[in-house]
Amino acid sequence: MKQRLPSLKAVIDGDDGDAIKEKTNSLAEASMKLGEAMYKASQEEAEAKANGSDEDSADDDVVDADFEEVKDDDQKSA
Prior knowledge:
There is one protein chain. This protein is mainly α. It has a domain at 1-52. 63% of the residues lie in helices and 0% in strands. Helix 1 runs antiparallel to helix 2 (17-50). The mean pLDDT is 80.
């Protein structure tokens, strides 16, 4: 995509309408491929989260702790 943008800039100031259309279409195709790749990556990420295999899940703040119940009667006799 980096190569397509400069080539479009090179012809955009010219008078050759066909060259401008060609370069514009080439850039549009490249951006669609990039969009497809981004969409696919986001779908895979969402699928991984749904399957529970994502390490950065929302349960990161969960703390596992043990506790002991203290009864009021035990505190009064102490």
